[in-house]
Amino acid sequence: MMKRLLILVIFLISGCASKPFQPPTKTYQDWVDGKHSELEIKKALLECGYPTPFADYPPYGTNASFSKNTYVKNYKCMLKAGFVNNLKHHPSHICYDSTGLPCNKDIKCQPRPLACDLSWSEIPDRSIKKRLESDYCQHKLYRTYPVCQP
Q1: Domain for residue 7, yes or no?
Q2: Over 80: is that where the pLDDT of 102 sits?
Q3: Is residue 5 part of a domain?
Q4: Which of 5, 32, 38, 130 could serve as a FRET partner for 142 with CA atoms 20 to 30 Å apart?
Q5: Is residue 17 part of a domain?
Q6: DSSP state, 103?
Q7: How many domains does the chain contain in total?
């Protein structure tokens, strides 16, 4: 009995020693660069069309209206607005899913999102109207938050 308890305690403590049990970063944290405040980044994310500044990567898949194509457009909007993403694993890999690789049971071939091929002039600009009219800012709990103020 004591042996099992000791193993359980060691297992639980080891989870705190590095980062295996840490929650994923929130979307706005991936854009923190020292040049922009957290509030500016959160506003920009909503202005570029992200459903929330707190969604974990990748935000698509949980919301039917937030497709990979929309994700790429929104991501490129942030880049176009001058923000820098500091993720170690760059999310632009979504534009290169399985390119040039044979399809089989291990490699799922997915169509390349159309937004990957858009020129910078075709990428939408930030929109204050989009932020203020977003589902996030229309929610009764969040509409008074600073990120949802004009």
Answers
A1: no
A2: no
A3: no
A4: 32
A5: no
A6: P
A7: 1
* Residue 51 neighbours by CB under 8 Å, 6+ apart: 59, 63, 66, 134, 135, 136
Residue 100 to residue 102: CA distance in whole angstroms: 7
Copy the structure tokens of residue 18: 């590095």
123 falls within a domain? yes
What does 125-146 look like in DSSP terms, one character per residue? PP-HHHHHTSHHHHSTTTTTSG
What is the largest distance, in Å, between two alpha-carbon atoms of the chain? 67
Question: What DSSP state is assigned to residue 53?
Answer: T
The residue whose two tokens read 């990428």 is 123
CB-based contacts of 126, cutoff 8 Å, min separation 6: 44, 47, 48, 77, 81
**Cα-flanking dihedrals φ and ψ of residue 135, to 5°?**
-60, -35
Mean pLDDT of the chain: 76
Query: What's at 43, amino acid-wise?
Result: K
Question: In the structure encoding, which two tokens stand for residue 113, read together?
Answer: 């999102």
Question: For residue 53, is the peptide bond before it cis, meaning its omega torsion is within 30 degrees of 0?
Answer: no
pLDDT at 18: 47
* Helix spans in the chain (H): 2-17, 38-47, 68-80, 128-132, 135-138
DSSP string of 33-51, one letter each residue: -SSS-HHHHHHHHHHTT-S
- Domain containing 37 equals 23-87+112-150
